[in-house]
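Step 1: inspect the first sequence and its tokens.
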Amino acid sequence: MSAQVPGVGMAGATGTGRSVRARRSSVWAVTAALVVGGGAAAGCKAQATNGAPVHVTKTSLSPAPQEKQQRSSVSNGTRDEGDDGSDGGGAPSPARRAKPAAPADPVLYATGAQGAQIRELQARLRKLKLFDRNPTGYYGPVTTASVRAFQRQQGRTANGTVTSGTWAALRARTSPPSQDELYPPTTLPLDDPDPRCLTGRALCVSKKSRTLAWYVGGRMVSAMDVRFGSAYTPTREGEFGVTFKSRHHVSTIYHTPMPYALFFSGGQAIHYSKDFAARGYSGASHGCVNVRDKKKIAALFAQVRKGDKVVVYK
């Protein structure tokens, strides 16, 4: 039995154990570093703590999943917006506003409107004697007052604006206006003709409506705007007859042109007036009946005969 030197075998064993433990520590350190660092490729080298090279083979541990992938897997199949109605950033989105309901009786026409529909509106109101002028196509104060009067008659809110209900009620109570009713020949509505105008051939001149209507056999052939003499030189009233015609007449008193003159009472005549055409009713004649529409008076001059009636009335 051989003697063993005390401490020698133990020392060798101890050195060997330490070497093994050091190598194992190095391997675990490298493996831990690779796991934390996301893995290493095959053949990479790592330095052990004691300076000896350690060969590391491809680890079987998979790389740690990235944070973005984790979030994607959690939110997979969910909506883009936040569950609380936010835009995903945590801030709640504003509540969706409901569309306002359409008014039950919407306004169709009001003050300031103009066009063909306003002309029709005025013509229909005139049929009910609520609009005392000829249609102009402009919705002004007179039209507003007329609409308000109709609304009061119908027991509706009298605000002077044409709503859908007001328009339907007006259409139900009036017939569609004719072309002449929509586009009348005179500025002011024609007055009811004097009975004397309804027989034979008559030039019917109304001072009330400031119009001249040409009747043949009780049927109106044409109509036009006229103006009369001033308070100092008034146009005479009554029934007369055309005494003579003068196409290019010039006044011997005032030396002014009187084209298409139809004389009916002394020096008073129906004729075209350039001043009336330019200034309208701001002026007056010296007693004659002035016409401002040259085409109309020219056509009338061609039709009227000497002896035809002239009726001037209020």
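Step 2: inspect the second sequence and its tokens, then contrast the two.
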Amino acid sequence: MKKHLCSLLLALLCSGFIFAEDPSASVDMDFLSKAKKETYIEDNSAVAWKNYNSGKQIRDMGRRLGAEVRYQAEVNKAEFPFSSGYPDYKYKAARVYPSSKAGADVIYIGKSARVGTFKNLNRVLSGYIERAYGVSMAQADQIAMKVCYWNTNHYNDKAYFKANFNHRVVEVFENRTKTLGLARSYKYWPGNARIVIPFTIVKEIVPEAAEPVAPEPEPVPEPVPEPQPVVESQPEPEPIQPVYVEPEAEAEPEPVTKPAVKEAEPAAKKAGLFASPLIFIIGGAVLLLIIIIIVIIIVNKKKQED
């Protein structure tokens, strides 16, 4: 088990070095930066509905070309990466690696392409550059425009291409058209144009491993004593002299006067003693008088009965 694990780790390590040293292509802007703007004659006639393609569909034509060329170059490691333009075969592309001179991708515009405006041609080239070189669509649009201008600046200038590029750049697709570069008129594009995209090889090299160096310890600053707060001297408070206060004389209690009601109590008692017998006498007299009246009435009734 340990032997298989070690073999797997060794294989992954070796493959990492191989992929790190794998060359990749990048558009050579040293050539394209010298391009001067061109004006093109375009086809302004109406497009039949059966021949109509959206902007995305036109870009996708170039994207399929670019993806195929990149696959042939990076995966299949082909010596001469090529894309036939399947399934419609309107465009073809090939990559010529640099020798002692520069290399380039060459795109052939087929007779059935029916491209008649600079805008649509730029879309095809932008789609190709986007996938073949792994750049964004916005970057590809700018590069494609410079590619068109540069190819028109050097239209059919084979002496220029032979002097600066691998001889195969001039020879590729020569069996289909002798023209190299891009004409100013759309009439000479389908079946008569080979557009050259210069590129350079970028080889990533893994830097040699170096032993890590321990960082030097940073000097620790000495602690700075904090300033002590300054205390202002204050005068000592003067001693407070005790003040003697004479005690106030206690107030004599006022004599309590008895209410006058109590003095009148004996008189009321005396009056009550004298009033009680008088009441009994009067009551007895009244009772006696009532009895006498009742007796007289009874006597009178008896006489009348007799």
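Step 3: confirm your contrast with the notes below.
The two ends are 166 Å apart (CA to CA). The chain has a mean pLDDT of 80.
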